[in-house]
Design goal:
Layout lengths: L1 H11 L1 H12 L2 H15 L9 H12 L5 H31 L9 H22 L5 H11 L4 H26 L3 H4 L2 H27 L1
Length: 213
């Protein structure tokens, strides 16, 4: 419980914590951000780590420091690509073992086959869009691996999605994060980014409900 409270405090006051860490550790902050983005995208057990807001605030802080924002973007793109690749590989490793399971209350082989078909048809779009949706971006590559999505297709959209995600949010923070109205309300901006990131889930849930109706 204490860990969750510390994590919540880190997310809510991300601007303060990251600024303090940047001041204290200097260039080592590159490594810290690399690890956070890698874990958030590459480990299914850490979907709660900050992603979108972290990129935006990092860009904001880099704009007022002597740190190289282009180096930051490059490292975080690489972290996101490696994270998704590792997540896919773990899912792919587990996939054949999962297919050997008998149908039960907790496992349906036909559902997994449908997952494979879905990722073959729409997986590219899913991998890219998932980059902007908290929690979903952690599980999407894992499920793609279990569903044995063609790796060449996955790799292309993995790289494309990581570039779009990191470049757009980090440079948005870099160019716009220090505008007074944004800088003075950074906590609200962070929650706004999180809210916008969750919007695709809300839209899809609404569409699914309308189809059922």
């Amino acid at each position: 419980m204490e860990i969750l409270l510390h994590l919540w405090d880190f997310i809510v006051h991300l601007d303060r914590h990251l600024a303090a860490l940047l001041q204290e550790y200097g260039v080592w902050i590159y490594a810290l951000l690399f690890v956070i983005i890698f874990c958030e995208t590459g480990l299914v057990v850490t979907p709660f780590l900050p992603g979108d807001s972290l990129l935006f605030v990092a860009g904001t802080l880099w704009a007022v420091s002597d740190m190289n924002v282009h180096m930051l973007v490059l490292l975080l793109v690489i972290a996101g690509i490696i994270g998704d690749a590792v997540n896919y590989s773990v899912g792919q490793y587990l996939g054949p073992r999962v297919f050997q399971w008998e149908d039960s209350r907790f496992f349906n082989r036909r559902a997994l086959l449908r997952t494979h078909e879905f990722y073959e048809r729409y997986g590219g779009k899913t991998i890219v869009i998932a980059r902007f949706v908290p929690f979903i971006r952690t599980f999407a590559p894992f499920v793609a691996g279990i569903g044995t999505m063609t790796y060449s297709k996955f790799a292309f959209y993995n790289v494309s999605g990581a570039l779009l995600w990191v470049v757009s949010l980090t440079y948005a923070g870099y160019f716009f994060g220090n505008i007074p109205v944004i800088c003075n309300n950074l906590t609200f901006v962070i929650f706004g980014i999180i809210g916008l990131s969750l919007l695709p889930i809300v839209v899809e849930l609404y569409k699914a409900r309308m189809r059922r109706a």
